Every structure is written in structure tokens, then in C-alpha cells.
Amino acid sequence: MNQEDLRDLQHLLEYTSDDLRAKRWSALGRGLKRTQSLLSDKKSAIVAAMPSDDQSRAEQILDSVANDLNILQERIEEKDKAGFIQSRRQTLSQIGDLEALLIDDRLPDIPSEFDDLPRLAGRATVVIETTEGDLTAVVDGYNAPLTAGAFIDLSLKGFYDGLPFNRAEDFYILQSGDPKGPDIGYLDPKTKQERHVPLEIRVPDEPETIYNQTFEDVGLFKATPVLPFSTLGTLGWAHSDQALDDGSSQFFLFLYEAELTPAGLNLVDGRNAAFGYVVDGFDVLEELGVNDEIKRIKVVDGADRLQQHA
Q1: Which H or E run contains 200?
Q2: Per-residue pLDDT tens for 91-118?
Q3: Contact 137, 278 (CB under 8 A)
């Protein structure tokens, strides 16, 4: 079962980042009203989709989310940016709790050839500590379990600690994860080989995840992925120009504005895997460049959802 209404609620809240950063309070208010309307219309369907033993808990969480949305409306009226960010973080966390109730149903089938790779069974929250300040991001293992799993696994191992941002292109991407020395990815200590993560993209209404094929390869020229590169701070997994399945540790932060790069119409959707979104620290993101580095990535929630293999 795929509860699209929860995903829509999540994305509507995540997509407030651009308006918030630009202090477009009227647009924020209109967007929040759409979120409240969606919750009101779909609450019964969301509860009904939950396992029977969890429906009472789901209803309580949704009531709390509705209350949080009212608080967010107050923050908009007060033009309280910091308060909005704090309340939004709490609301997204509660939506994550709801999705956790669907974890067995929401995770896509993963081909057995990838059984040795780590996977994230749910959602995790990370704080990316940099020389310019902190970024908070939500990593989505529901829709990109292998990509998210690799990132969380390496974060917990301290792999990214002290690594520089090695590529920065204005209004495009900011990339890190290239280890020091001759290697360009993560070497598995058991096999002494570079661990590779396949290109992994989900498409709405498609029963199976697309692995190691671009949208062009499968003829989806106008498709929009479940996790689109549609907002500033989208987390993407890097691979070389020569192969789709050789991404190992390097990731990037998408820097385009949503209004300039609508989902499905940019050069990244369908060619790279998105696996999460920055939800706080956009002022820091705008200051980062190749002279900066990651101090560490701290997994503040969801580390227990990491599975080392199938």
C-alpha cells in the first residue's frame, strides 16, 4: 500500500522553504491553507490506510499535526521565521511518525542483487555541521532506501568528517564526499573494493523502482520522480559520466530555485537519485563554497532504521 496523501502533506511542508527564505509571507499563508485543506479532506483515508492496531495512534498524530498547522499559521501572521522553522520541523517529524507506521508496506521491493548494501527503512534526520554553520536535512528511506542507506551508513561511520566541498557551481550544485587520497569513494573494509550504489528512482504510480536506468532510457521523457529536484537544498547522489551504478560516497546539494527548475523539466530529474531535502539552514547553504568543509554529519533521528543488508 502506498499512502500518497502523507507524501503530499510532507512535500507541501518541505516546499515552503523557498517562500520562507524569501519572506513571501502571503504565499506561505496560501500554501499552508492548501496543506490544511488536504489534511481535512484526506484524514479519514489516511487513518483507514493504517494497520488496524495503529489507527487510533494515527488519528491522535493527525490531530496533533492539525494543531501544529494552526501554530504555523500564527507564525506566518507574526512573520516569525525562526518560530516557523521550529514548528515545521516538529510537524514533519510527526508526519514521519505516521509513515513509520506504514514501514512494512511503504518500502519498495529491492532486487536481491543489492542484498549486501545497507538500506534505510524509513526516514532519518541529520545535521550537517560545516565551517559556515549547520544544515538540517530529512533523508528519505521510504523512496530511496539504498541511496539513503548508504548516506546514513557513511555518516554514522564518520566518513564525511573533515571532507571539503570539492565542487561548487553557482545556481546548480554543491558537492562533497570525495575522500582524501587516491580513492574517489568508500572502500568496503571487508572486500577492499569500492562500494557502489545503483541509480535508484521511483516514479508515482509505477509499481517498481527504476534501477540503473535514466528516464530517457525507459522512455519517460516528461515524468516527475517521487523525490524531484524541485527545491533549494535537495540532496542528490553523484555518479560518474561513464556509469550510472558507480556512485559510492559523493553527494550534492541542489542549488536551483524551484521556480527556475520545475520538477521534471531540469537536467537532474531522472538522471540522478534524490534522497532527501534540507529543511533548515538555507542561509548557511548560500554561503558554502569550495573553501568550506563538512565538520561532521550527525544523525539525530532514525539511526535505528538503518539495516546493514537485506
Answers
A1: strand 200-201
A2: 887 887 787 776 554 567 899 999 999 9
A3: yes
Q: What confidence category does residue 1 fall into, taking pLDDT thresholds of 50, 70 and 90?
A: very low
Spatial separation of the C-alpha atoms in residues 237 and 154, rounded to whole Å: 13
Residue 229 above 90 pLDDT?
no
In degrees, rounded to 5, the angle at the alpha carbon of residue 271 between the alpha carbons of residues 7 and 111 is 70
Query: Do both 115 and 240 map to the same domain?
Result: yes
Predicted structure pTM score: 0.76
* Number of domains the chain is built from: 2
Cα–Cα distances in Å, from 128 out to 18, 235, 277, 299, 300?
20, 12, 12, 9, 10
What is the residue range of 31's domain?
Answer: 4-104
Q: What is the CATH number of the domain that holds 72?
A: 1.20.120.290
Whether residue 100 sits in one domain with residue 124: no
Residues 6+ apart with CB under 8 A from 168: 174, 175, 288, 289, 290
Residue 193 sits in the same domain as residue 300: yes
